[in-house]
Amino acid sequence: MACVVIAVFRFYYFIIVGGLVDMRYIKSVIVKLPVIALMCALVVGCAIKLAPEYDKAIVDGLKDNSKKVLVLFASISNGSLTEDYPGRKNTYDELIGAFESLKVMAEARPVPSSKVVEKANEYLKSRNKDEISLVAPSSGAINEVVRQLIAMRERDKSTNMSASIISAHKGFVLAALDQAITYESFLER
Question: How many Å separate Cα 20 from the centre of its chain?
């Protein structure tokens, strides 16, 4: 069907743009309407998708686990003692597991292949530049959350953490969560 629409559009385009027919001189709505309809169909039907599909489960998971990680930060905002770590171990493990699961979900979605991206990557490769990644940007942000939580857990296990160290980890986690939630929410167009 799409090929037929494109062929008909090319015919009309050739006639109109090629100068064979000037739309200003066509008085009949019967002739103008199909031309306009075909142009609209072509524009709507041939959109280039560069992002994966929206997944409500990922967005919901990010929002739910963001609340949990902020509760963890609130509970140790004044610093943490190593002897209290066993009470937080399960929280760390659950959060790390949840965010790793969300990362897998984000990476597992099919990303639309696009001739535009392929051409851009060929050009970038010829210039010895980094190619455009076909992995959702939220994956890297979620990975940063996991990285920060693992570093925090290891430090919490072995030494007392000051409020400033916890605040630094919190800043990195909040920035990464903001990026991931913003990107994933934006996919719901």
Answer: 46
